[in-house]
TrEMBL record:
SUPFAM superfamilies, alphabetized: Prokaryotic SH3-related domain (SSF82057), Zinc beta-ribbon (SSF57783)
Protein name per Swiss-Prot or TrEMBL: PhnA domain-containing protein
Signal peptide: none
The family this protein is said to belong to: Belongs to the YjdM family.
UniProt cross-references to Gene3D superfamilies, sorted A to Z: 2.20.25.10, SH3 Domains
Length: 115
């Protein structure tokens, strides 16, 4: 059986074909086969500590106390961060955000979970 691509919008795995379009029943997103090939090559896939797909604008919660270089304070477990941005961090820091009490910072995806 042919493996169909996951939804580029929500990451859903239950996509199906309708003519020359792929359709996701979870979020009702439709895309063409050509768009799915281009999306597979350029897509930045960032998943949280639980394996949930993260997207720009998501809210996350820190799951571990984190030390901040150059600061005596750190980020405590349970800190809620609103409106993250995903970036291509070559050193593993794929989340760009503003942490309350700390300021703008980049975080690694394995230290957050989706709220």
């Amino acid at each position: 059986m042919e493996q169909l691509p996951n939804c580029p919008k929500c990451g859903g795995e239950y996509t199906y074909e309708d003519g020359d379009l792929f359709i996701c029943p979870e979020c009702a997103h439709e895309w063409s086969q050509d768009a799915s090939l281009a999306a597979d090559e350029d897509a930045l896939v960032v998943k949280d500590a639980n394996g949930t797909l993260l997207q720009d604008g998501d809210d996350v919660t820190v799951i571990k106390d984190l030390k901040v270089k150059g600061s005596s304070s750190g980020i405590k477990v349970g800190t809620k961060i609103k409106g993250i941005r995903l970036v291509d961090g070559h050193d593993g820091h794929n989340i760009d955000c503003k942490v309350p009490g700390v300021g703008a910072i980049k975080l690694k995806q394995e230290f957050v979970k989706k709220s």
